[in-house]
């Protein structure tokens, strides 16, 4: 990335007054840096100044050097999926709860931004997943996922029956409440609560974590990041199962649908403070000693 920052995109948490304090202060700070500011349309409505330009993800991706996400991990996931193709680096400001992805606190936001504007930062590349849903041999939906792609039951207590293939090799048939296919980034999310391992975000890997499998020996699996994973739905009792990407994009499944999951061909770049420490974040968020 070019260390000269001339334009900044701001993505604020939608419909949440908690950002009302940080957002105007951030705009004032950036105006002092004499940079062009584009704010997502929902957040722009919270501002009274006329010197910012409202815009959408396409505007921010094509016109800005960096994007600052003000919100929680959910806001960051939305920004990541929508901006990854533009190759614009993201900064996360934590106005949410857990904050694995948004690692700058509002209390020291401007100190950290001073460091970044002075070129004192590190860039980390993170992988995403790309999921395609096929029905009767035709692709009917596709989406990116920064944390995970999840096959899960809903609106029923019945289990789903499906077959799993990795690189055209049959792995198993299972009856369960579903399966989490996770990036290393997502290993601290739903996959963690499902009993999966923590995977360092620098690893080229994909994690598969079963959700309440009927076979107790069915355990999480870590595979190479270049793997192609296919889930062949055998029985899900029409519309009683879904595919979800990052828990934010969902589509109902039918019997004999096929989900194909691969690593996306582009990575997301995150900007961290120069002293960023992944294990320090794990200690703080997970309550380690």
Question: What is the secondary structure topology, with strand pairs?
Answer:
Elements: E1 7-12, H1 22-32, E2 36-40, H2 41-44, E3 53-55, H3 57-63, E4 66-71, H4 73-83, E5 90-94, H5 109-117, E6 121-126, E7 129-135, E8 138-145, E9 148-153, E10 160-166, E11 169-176, E12 178-182, H6 190-193, E13 205-211, E14 221-224, E15 229-235, E16 241-245, E17 249-252, E18 258-263, E19 268-273, H7 278-286
3D structure, described in words:
GO terms for molecular function: ATP binding; NAD+ kinase activity. Keywords: ATP-binding, Kinase, NAD, NADP, Nucleotide-binding, Transferase. One of its GO terms (biological process) is NAD+ metabolic process. This protein has 289 residues and is of the alpha+beta class. It has two domains: 7-127 and 267-286, Rossmann fold, CATH 3.40.50.10330; 129-263, Sandwich (Tumour Suppressor Smad4), CATH 2.60.200.30. It is 19% helix and 38% strand. The protein is built from seven helices and 19 strands. The chain has helices spanning 22-32, 41-44, 57-63, 73-83, 109-117, 190-193, 278-286; strands spanning 7-12, 36-40, 53-55, 66-71, 90-94, 121-126, 129-135, 138-145, 148-153, 160-166, 169-176, 178-182, 205-211, 221-224, 229-235, 241-245, 249-252, 258-263, 268-273. The strands form four sheets. A six-stranded antiparallel β-sheet has the order 8-7-18-15-10-11. A six-stranded antiparallel β-sheet has the order 14-13-12-9-16-17, with no helix packed on it. A five-stranded parallel β-sheet has the order 3-2-1-4-5, with helices on both faces. Strand 10 (160-166) and strand 11 (169-176) form a beta hairpin. The longest helix has 11 residues, at 22-32. It starts with 6 loop residues before the first strand and ends with a helix.
């Amino acid at each position: 990335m070019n260390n000269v920052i001339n334009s900044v995109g701001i993505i604020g948490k939608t419909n949440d007054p908690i950002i009302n304090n940080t957002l105007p202060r951030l705009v004032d700070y950036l105006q002092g840096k004499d940079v062009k500011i584009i704010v997502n349309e929902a957040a722009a409505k919270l501002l009274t100044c006329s010197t910012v330009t409202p815009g959408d993800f396409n505007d921010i991706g094509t016109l800005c050097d960096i994007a600052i996400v003000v919100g929680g991990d959910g806001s960051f996931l939305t920004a990541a999926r929508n901006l990854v193709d533009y190759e614009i680096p993201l900064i996360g400001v934590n106005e949410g709860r857990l904050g694995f992805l948004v690692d700058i606190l509002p209390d020291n936001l401007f100190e950290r931004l001073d460091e970044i504007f002075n070129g004192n930062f590190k860039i980390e590349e993170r992988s995403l997943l790309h999921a395609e849903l096929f029905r009767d041999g035709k692709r009917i939906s596709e989406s990116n996922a920064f944390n995970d792609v999840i096959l899960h039951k809903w609106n029923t207590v019945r289990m789903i029956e499906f077959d799993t293939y990795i690189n055209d090799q049959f792995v198993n048939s299972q009856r369960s409440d579903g399966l989490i296919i996770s990036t290393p980034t997502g290993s601290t999310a739903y996959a963690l609560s499902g009993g999966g391992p923590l995977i360092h975000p620098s690893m080229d890997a994909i994690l598969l974590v079963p959700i309440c499998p009927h076979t107790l020996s069915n355990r999480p699996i870590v595979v190479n990041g270049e793997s192609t994973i296919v889930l062949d739905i055998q029985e899900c009792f029409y519309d009683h199962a879904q595919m979800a990407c990052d828990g934010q994009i969902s589509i109902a499944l039918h019997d004999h649908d096929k989900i194909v999951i691969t690593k996306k061909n582009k990575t997301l770049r995150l900007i961290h403070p120069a002293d960023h420490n992944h294990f320090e974040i794990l200690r703080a968020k997970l309550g380690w000693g």
